[in-house]
## 1
Amino acid sequence: MNNFIFENGTKVIFGKGCVKEYLSCFLKHYGNNVMLAYGGGSIKKNGIYDEIMGVLEKDGKTIVEFNGIMANPTYAKVTEGAKLARENQVDVILAVGGGSVMDCSKAISMAAKYDGDLWSDYWAKPGIIDFEPVPLCVIVTVSGTGSEMNGGAVITNEELKVKTGRDYPKCNPKLALLDPTYTFSVPVKQMVSGGFDSLSHIMEIYFSAPDEPNVSDDIAEALMRGVIRDLRAAIKNPKDYTARSNLMWEAVMAENRIIKLGKKTDFECHMMEHQLGAFTDCNHGAGLAVLHPVYYRHIYKEGIAKFKRFAMEVWGISGNGRADEEIALAGIDALEKFISEIGLPNKLRDLGVDEKTDLKAVADSCTCVQGAYKAMTHEEIHEIFKECY
Ligand code: NZQ
Ligand code: ZN
């Protein structure tokens, strides 16, 4: 194992009924003014809004609602939320939703306490947070990003056409309430997209040095097998509590820094998908599904041992005296088949990316990461986009 320091500031309460049981005792440690942040309104249809309002009203909280947080949240929305939080002297933010609501709320928690320009000082480049953001509690309603137990917030600056994530430990939610039954109403298409996002996070970490035996890779393999199994089960029966609860925790384990310990990590697919998102507003998990197999066929030769191990340990492909390269490619083929099996797109055109999109401009705007088996150039990223189209 390589050296590491580990810390995670989020308390997690997991299980059916946890919001009703624990929200009130968490909030009593903070002031009276609660900002309730949510998305486009799914929580009003599935009863989650009423359940939370019941708790807040019983406790006599002053509630400031901030809704309409969109998928791929924008910096303009962060600014709007921060203004509302300041005007109402909000003591705590309660974010109810998926990655978009949680990420936007993290950025609001900072912007509400920061007098400078948040984008240029903390998202355009990494910054040091020398102030306390507004405390944040999250209630997860769709699994996938793992935002609930990390400090990551991915924000789109529409003017600059840049979608960037930063992981600031000070932005870790103080509390994450995870009730798997809250995800029962998530449409299958979004559930699958979230599940694939979790799988993507695990792969982005797994496919990087070191390759000698290490605990992080061992856990990653178990998690990948779990996501595959649980997505299949939840597609068959969206109200399968076992499958939904596993998917919820797998999403957290994929992005709560534990399997990153001692690893370099890749995340080039995420860099590519984020910029596709900045230019086209495409769905995050579905965009990753299109990119991964094509990207892996570009890099597997530089990480052949790990790709062989992926094929055998995750997909159960037997060696049978075959060459390493053949086994490695069979693993990538299995991943691609799984993507089709669960109904995710294989092509950017099926993702709704307009043929007029300037893929070269998107490629040129992507960050080329340091930790991958093979360093990408903007030209190769452009090739990948063209192959994906
Ligand atoms: O907006 P509403 O009406 O609530 O509908 C949402 C939204 O349309 C719906 N939904 C959520 N819970 C539901 C539900 N529908 C029915 N029943 C429920 N219980 O689901 C849709 C998608 O929500 P969204 O939050 O956008 O999805 P997701 O969780 O996939 O988040 C995606 C965002 O997170 C970022 C992505 O880039 C993207 O912007 N990421 C954040 C990360 C992090 N902070 O660590 C890491 C990821 O790699 C990712 O980049
Ligand atoms: Zn992701």
## 2
Amino acid sequence: MPPPDTIAAVKGFRDVLPDESRRWRALEEAAERVFTCYGFGEIRLPVVERTELFARSLGETTDIVEKEMYSFADRDETGLTLRPEATAGVVRAYLESGLAQSDPSARLYYRGPMFRRERPQRGRYRQFYQIGAEVLGRDDPLADAELLVMLDRYLAGVGARATRLELNSVGDRVCRPVYRERLREFGRAHLAGLCPDCHRRLERNPLRMLDCKVESCQEIMARAPVAADSLCEGCRAHLAQVRTLLEQERVAYAMNPRLVRGLDYYCRTAFEVVAGGLGAQNAVGGGGRYDGLVAALGGPDVAGVGFALGLERLAMVAPEVEAEAPGPTALILPLDAQAVGPALALATRLRDGGLAVGLEPAGRSLKALLRIADRRHARLAVILGEEELRARRATVRDLVQHQDRRQVLPLDAGGPELVRALQAMIGGGQ
Ligand code: HAM
């Protein structure tokens, strides 16, 4: 417990300490490796955008826009918002940077913090991190399939095998209005059992009723008509082709006819990656097609498809990624005050040469220092005492193998020579 008068982090905002961030980095590096093979380049986006960008793209009646955005007025009264997601920002950048002309079928990936004022719980935070990928300018089912193959291979590569890909089509501007009307009729017939929020959704955005978290609503909506039965010919053919390609590449998926996403920009393909063992927050990632979004933001009528994974949740379902903390290769132990300067000089030369080196303060017994070296999981202890300084040779003890063997390191050697000598000691001991 922290002392009572310290300042705590804001509710829903958390620190990511080295044990966790090391695993995040492994997940990010794996994403970079895999996504690069599929032709994606990284885009770094601002975390703040104009509020209207999200209001216009995510949908005025979504939970995010209605109640979860961190919005504020800038000093000149411009309405700004901490981004709740990145797809809208990617589309804005695509239009603003001229990519829409120079590289109309751009493939962009991103990572970084997103902000939603949701009720915090395990796996749900107010600042959370996503890794996402977007393909612009492609309306063919091959683009959806390629993206899903990439997602599948990435998840397998990081060991997130206990995840399931759920797929649906939410229709397009031709058939969605028909489905919306069917849902409205169903909702009206079951009005008495629906929560006040769903009463509102019924008129404004009936698809949202399928996403309601209230148990009694869920029970009713489990019997509601599904989108698949209202799809137009174009949407049906698109979905069929995506499925054929996924099956060809042996991407496992399950159709979920009730899958609707929490954002309004989706069209046709919609999907989620879900995992058991995460409790209520079981979506590790989600995405889909957003063919009307670029036009809605003032651009040409260009299609898009993408996904985002939540890093916190991904780290929970890919537990074996880089779980071990790497100890320093060598821990330098100055025994007294005279050894402090030479110890720092030695550490700097080794670190300049790319070795992970720890350095302890002077003033403790050799026995105490060796105990520390053990706790830090150091491979080698480099001891610098009076005798060593006189002989200009540090004593090196291998803490993992041949623990009784002493070797020496010439203190006046150049950096590269020192690094080679230590590496030989590790290599020779194996
Ligand atoms: P989303 O489903 O809202 O989609 O978020 C994607 C993932 O972000 C979720 O599956 C979850 O893992 C994580 N996530 C969302 N909210 C939280 C939270 N409060 N705490 C922790 N993790 C969270 C999007 O954001 C779309 N932009 C995805 C997309 C890209 N669609 C097309 N392209």
